[in-house]
Write a structure and sequence with these properties.
Elements: E1 11-14, H1 22-25, E2 31-35, H2 46-53, E3 58-62, H3 71-83, E4 88-93, H4 95-108, H5 117-120, E5 131-135, E6 147-152, E7 157-162, E8 170-173, H6 183-201, H7 209-231, H8 236-249, H9 263-275, H10 279-293, H11 299-310, H12 317-334, H13 348-361, H14 374-383
Parallel strand pairs: 1-8, 2-3, 2-4, 4-5, 5-8
Antiparallel strand pairs: 6-7
Length: 385
């Protein structure tokens, strides 16, 4: 097992009626900005619960944060928050709202000329306004980590950042808030969480059996509960299990002491930036090709994954690896997540554009072995056509 330092200060309040706990979690004298997305929280009762819990505080709101949140939109929120002297932000929504809020609280305190530098130039975050979250869409794990991914609509760029200062102070996870989610978003969330686990698991062995078993337990639970969530999104126990899986997939617990491979995410972000393809769907496009392309260096873990999660234990090693990848693709497809670029009417021109962008940025050394170069990215995307 590799050396590691683990830090996660996020307080989780899980279960029914936990939104009421906002009363005790946010200081009574706070000037609160509530951030949210397209307004579904005003239709499903979540907004009313939040506002009731914040009664007596100075509260303003900023809505309209997009899926794959836009820098341009978020800077409007930053300006509003500064003008209103906000000193606490509450994100109410899914990963995009929470990611956007992480940028807002960092940009509010950023002293440089352009807050985009936090993303494009990795300018350090030295201060951030405190914030909490009310999760309404399980998927990204953003409610219990410090990472954020933001899109600049003007240039069609999508970059990430993270800081110890952008962990939420707390996150409220009430499975009942998910009852009105569209099936598409539930499917996306399942695939997003599942892929998060694979990117921390399908690398190479370092004698970390506990981390392996924890990763496999999340995969098995998503495999079992995912289809049930799509079938009956108002089943409390199913949605509770799905919600906690998505959080555990990316809160840092399963990545400690093991190598990770975020190349699928890195490549997938370009497909979202260029074509607006749902984040989870870009992962489902890229991952199978990346696994096939790197199957030799991932062999031991691919065989282990196939045997332990999918029961693949017959045939040659190559046959078992292919059967495992096919089982993964079939799982994604069963959730109505298409897995090739052609399914999204994306062709070779996009492959060339991503290669051009990566060359311009000097992208190199992706993957757990730092051996995925731009020419490999081109091969992986071509295999995804």
């Amino acid at each position: 097992m590799n050396n590691f330092t683990f830090y996660n200060p996020v307080k989780i309040l899980f279960g029914k009626a936990q939104i009421a706990a906002l009363t005790s979690e946010i200081p009574a004298d706070a000037k609160v900005l509530v951030t949210y997305g397209g307004g579904s929280i005003k239709k499903n009762g979540v907004y009313d619960q939040v506002m009731a819990a914040l009664s007596g505080r100075t509260v303003t709101e900023f809505g309209g944060i997009e899926p794959n949140p836009h820098y341009e939109t978020l800077m409007k929120a930053v300006n509003q928050a500064k003008q209103e002297q906000v000193n606490f932000v509450l994100a109410v929504g899914g990963g995009s709202v929470i990611d956007g809020t992480k940028f807002i609280v960092a940009a509010m305190e950023y002293e440089g000329a352009d807050a985009w530098d936090i993303l494009a130039k990795k300018a350090p975050v030295k201060k951030a306004v405190p914030f909490g979250t009310v999760l309404t869409l399980p998927a990204t794990g953003s409610e219990m980590n410090s990472g954020s991914v933001i899109t600049k609509a003007e240039t069609k760029e999508k970059f990430s950042f993270g800081s110890p200062l952008t962990f939420p102070k707390f996150s409220i996870l009430d499975p009942e808030t998910t009852y009105t989610l569209p099936v598409r978003q539930i499917s996306n969330g399942i695939v997003d969480a599942y892929t998060h686990v694979l990117e921390q698991y399908l690398t190479y062995p370092v004698n970390a059996p506990l981390q392996d078993r924890m990763a496999e337990s999340i995969l098995l639970t998503l495999k079992e509960e995912g289809p049930k969530a799509v079938e009956n999104p108002q089943d409390y126990d199913t949605m509770a299990n799905f919600m906690w899986c998505a959080t555990m997939a990316l809160n840092g617990v399963i990545r400690v002491g093991v190598p990770t491979d975020w190349a699928t995410h890195y490549i997938g972000h370009e497909l979202t930036a260029l074509h607006g393809i749902d984040h989870a769907r870009t992962l489902a496009i890229v991952l199978p090709s990346l696994l096939r392309y790197k199957q030799e260096t991932k062999k031991e873990k691919l065989l282990q994954y196939g045997q332990r999660v999918w029961g693949v234990d017959a045939g040659t090693e190559d046959e078992r690896i292919e059967a495992t990848i096919q089982a993964t693709v079939a799982f994604f497809e069963s959730l109505d997540i298409k897995t090739t670029l052609a399914d999204y009417e994306v062709g070779q021109e996009t492959v060339k554009e991503i290669v051009r962008r990566f060359e311009e940025r000097g992208v190199k050394n992706l993957g757990e072995h730092a051996d995925i170069q731009i020419k490999d990215v081109e091969e992986i995307l071509t295999m995804s056509l």
